[in-house]
Amino acid sequence: MSLFNPLTLRGVTLPNRIAVSPMCQYSCDNGFANDWHLVHLGSRAVGGAGLVFTEAAAVAPEGRISPEDLGIWDDKHAEALAPIVRFLKTQGSIPGIQLAHAGRKASTHRPWEGNDAVLPEQGGWTDVWAPSPIPFSADYVSPKELDRAGIDRIVKAFTDSAARSAGAGFEVVEIHAAHGYLLHEFLSPLSNKRADEYGGNSENRARMLKRVVSAVRERIPELALFVRLSVTDWVEGGLTVEESVEVARIAKQAGADLIDCSSGGSVPNASIPVGAGYQTPFAERIRREASVPTGAVGLITGPEQADHIIRTGQADIVLLAREMLRDPYWPLHAAEELNVKMSWPVQYLRAASKGSTARHGLTELED
Ligand SMILES: Cc1cc2nc3c(=O)[nH]c(=O)nc-3n(C[C@H](O)[C@H](O)[C@H](O)COP(=O)(O)O)c2cc1C
Fold first, then answer.
1. CA atoms within 13 A of residue 203's CA, in its CB half-sphere
2. 324 lines ligand 1 (CB under 6 A)
3. Is 224 within 8 Å of 258 (Cβ atoms)?
4. Where do the structural domains in the chain lie, given as residue ranges?
5. Is the predicted pLDDT of residue 359 greater than 90, yes or no?
């Protein structure tokens, strides 16, 4: 198996193992995708990524990280995404959407405008929800504890959003249960202090995710369903890799096809040993111990590195984020470096080889 082999998950075949990792663009008005998203996601499909994920799309307005987040809580959001999805498919990419609820990390500024709460008079909101009423930090809104009706409402928001995503033409749906957002808040003992059946031991803390995954699976039986986990909180007393193996088993049982293995985000002060491929061992371990396909993400930048992850069975796909921002054509360049034949878009064929491609007696610089 190598980076450029296809992968079939449920009814969906990715043409290669390279995915554009979900990346918030903080560029929407009221949750609507716009020209920026078409060009941004479209370029990465032109660049040859087998799977192109949208950024986190909020399943409810109060579940946005910032007021400028992408949304999928209304049918009209799906209508705005549909032409983008169509374009990704014309380029041979599989379109994916990440469904998210920000929980206690909602209503914050977009990164280039600050790191704290957006006040209601600035377009923010105080209707912020979490498993327990504990703020992420003193700079964030203090969340309210979800009651059972609130939990049911959120499960429904995820399933309705998944159905809308299928309607827009997406073929992969990823449930965001990482990075300190709502579903991770339930999983982590640092943010979940509940005394009911959603808190306490790890099985109880996984109950919310299990409900969301099974309900979403039921609504979208044909689509590939991924779950992104923060496999460790990187702090004493937080979620552990051992627990995450169990969570992965539960998610698989509930209908997930792949576990996308990230880490961190539940507390502001974790000390994370960031370095090349630093999260890949989590993908390897979850794959082996929970017997489920996995995605590796985090400082994967080189073609040889990415290919090695797949060849050695550490993960089934790689997800690249920042490197894809640096080079939208990373997959085409990686194929060249790994000596794999990959078709360039016909419009770009004259740049595919650095050799001369004289045509009609002109050099490639004329026309
Ligand atoms: C601009 C930006 C926005 C991001 N937004 C999201 C997001 O919406 N959902 C998510 O799960 N991760 C998000 N991430 C995290 C990435 O998907 C990825 O996990 C992380 O950047 C590590 O991969 P990298 O080293 O290839 O950048 C974001 C990262 C960046 C740089």
1. 1
2. no
3. yes
4. 7-359
5. no
